[in-house]
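User: My instructor asked us to take a sequence, write out its structure as tokens, and then describe one feature of it. I'm not sure where to start. Here is the sequence I was given:
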Amino acid sequence: TIQAQQRATFPYNCVPNPLRGRGETCVHGYQCSTRFCCPQLKVCLTDSLDGTAMTHSEQWVKDIVKPVTCNTALDGANKHCRGNANGDPNPGFDQTRCGCNNAYMQHFNAETWMPCGTACTCGTGSPCPARNCVSCGANTVVRALWDSGFSTKMWLPGKIFDQNGINEAAGTIKVLWNDNTKSDALWDLVYAGPHNCCRNGQTQQPGAAPGPAPTPAT
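Assistant: Let's start with the prediction itself. The structure tokens for your sequence are:
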């Protein structure tokens, strides 16, 4: 596709399979299930105000990110470091112009900042790239996109209201927000920790034991 051809012109352009979860490492937004890779942190967030995503990051990632990975990535005129709403990098993307620290750039250049996983194969019948999921139930703590119904949308913390509110047929989950109001949120826009809730037939992926940072090639 034209989109794939455009992405192929950028460094570290793989589409990870499965997609990267909230709090996991990324280079471009389309590599995240959230569609947003923070330009400063190089970690998947729901939005720029997602202050709890990194509680799900591995320790070696936290060590590199502190206080930020790329300290000039959000400078007003610096579009070389950011992407659009679809998660694609802006034309002229250039990670070397973003004030990134040496530890991150080592991983970036060696392509060890994030795993690409198993490449998608056409005609397999399964959605690809896949999305990891976690088991959910009543009172599961979530971060979800609240929609006022009047064009106002924002990511907010809350918890799943009850088991009956998990409506797979409608593709929605009823969320009790922290202000004690409740409303339905779209399934794929509800994050229970790093991932969405599992649907019927999906299996929660076992969490990998936290490990040391991958060693960049020399």
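For the description part of your assignment, you could build on this observation: Helices lie at 2-7, 59-65, 102-110. Try explaining in your own words what that tells you about the chain.
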